[in-house]
Amino acid sequence: MKKTAGAILVKKGRVLLTKRNVEPFSGCWCLPGGHVEPGESVEETIVREVKEETGLDFEPVFFMKDLEEVPRMHWLAEVSFFTGSFSGNVNIDHKEVQEAGWFGKDDLKEMKFAFNHKKILEKYFEKNG
Question: What is the pLDDT of residue 73?
Answer without folding.
Answer: 78
